[in-house]
Amino acid sequence: MVLYAYHASHEQFPPSALVRYARLAEEAGFTAVSSSEHLQPWSARQGQSGFAWAWLGAAMQTTALPFSVVCAPGPRYHPVILAQAAATLAELFPGRFQVALGSGEALNERVTGEPWPPKPERHARLRECVDIVRALWAGETVTHEGRVRVEGGRLYTRPAVPPRLFGAAVTAETARWVGGWADGLLTVGGAPEGVRQRLDAFAEGGGAGKPVILQVALAYARDEAEARRGAYEQWRTNVFPSDVLAELWTPAQFEAVARYVRAEDLEASVRISADPQRHLAWLQQDAALGVSQINLHNVHRGQEAFIDVFGARVLPELRPA
Predict the structure, then answer these.
(1) How far is CA 242 from CA 105, 157, 170, 229, 274, in A?
(2) Which of 73, 154, 155, 158 is a plausible cystine mate for 141, CB 3.0–4.6 Å?
(3) pLDDT in tens, 47-65
(4) What CATH code is carried by the domain that includes residue 24?
(5) Which residues are catalytic, by number?
(6) Phi and psi, residue 225, nearest 5°
């Protein structure tokens, strides 16, 4: 059965509001919650960036749903600290937490003042961090000299079963690489043929039979013009290729490169419609790809209307009879 997750966007909403939205999503029939993890938003209009790891404990305590978060190990999150945070949540909420790791974006990671390496180097660092995290979860004492350093790291509080470790990928090349080490794949939505290429590459790289989470960006409002206005207002800084998104440093830089983005340019990356049936058809197409979870990120600020309408008119049609 496919899980349909409400996506908690820390770039757009304060953590107190996101706790409430997660609770409303559970009541409406969403079957999971996914969380972003940002130090800065993509634009000043989004205007938030709460600490996701603190929020996860509060939100998971107030619901019974499974949760996931995506983040990047490295200078900002040393792998020992990340392993400790994830192990604590998995011990608190057995079977309800999983984490996806990616190579990161300069927007969040450059704050430490460390050089921002090219993608191949970030991948190599990520792979080292994955091995360190898994060794710590297994109860090992870890000393490591490489792109990251660990001196006698050990976790004394560990869950009975460690959380699943997904790999984040937005290209087929990265998805193939992730297939060799991850417990599952987190990727983004888009044209079905592009998603299928990533899923096939993941399977070819060693991910065959492993779970896949698909994150889809949508803009829903009760009025079509309002859905389009809200999508443009909130998400026009996010329509660029991943190699651009990973390299910009500040919200002001994202604003600058988005200066000439038109409203119609969002349609390639955001599903914009006021018709719940249109969104239902899109999600049915996603489910047919064979994914295990679909994260629904409504980039429009009207979260309560989205939760209410999708809970009443979309999610019931996606559940098996």
Answers:
(1) 9, 36, 7, 24, 28
(2) 154
(3) 999 999 999 999 999 999 9
(4) 3.20.20.30
(5) 38, 105
(6) -65, -35
